[in-house]
Design goal:
mainly alpha
């Protein structure tokens, strides 16, 4: 394995770990109860931490397709969640998310940065890094 590929695996794992620790900080330390869409995003982010660590230890670049798929699906959920938080037209048609509203915004940094946007950025970084790793693996 090339050093560049190892760095890409490390980047994927680091981003996923940071996002996971961030979500746990908001729920376990700040006490923010995750809505249903937040849980779905976690379902796609948390395994990337474990998968990425195992791939890094084994120096296995074949994991890139899996992380790309997980991040694509998770990123889609994050983008939709951000949309129902910020777009009035989507808020009216937002599904009932159980005990916690999916349109609620625990944080709103700079007037536009919410938890789903942070998750989307993490998923986007992982997706792009996964595609780069796939490309580098085929060379």
């Amino acid at each position: 394995m090339k050093k560049k590929q190892e760095n890409e695996l490390l980047f994927i794992w680091t981003v996923a770990l940071t996002a996971t620790l961030g979500s746990l900080y908001y729920s376990e330390i700040k006490g923010y109860i995750p809505c249903t869409l937040c849980w779905y995003q976690r379902i796609f982010m948390y395994p990337i931490v474990l998968i990425g660590l195992i791939a890094l230890i084994q120096k296995n670049t074949k994991i890139a397709l899996t992380t790309a798929v997980f991040s694509l699906i998770g990123g889609g959920i994050s983008l939709y969640h951000y949309g129902i938080q910020k777009l009035p037209a989507l808020q009216e048609s937002a599904p009932a998310c159980g005990g916690v509203s999916c349109t609620g915004q625990y944080v709103n940094y700079f007037g536009f940065v919410t938890i789903p946007l942070l998750a989307f950025v993490a998923f986007a970084f992982i997706f792009i890094a996964s595609l780069v790793l796939l490309k580098d693996t085929k060379e």
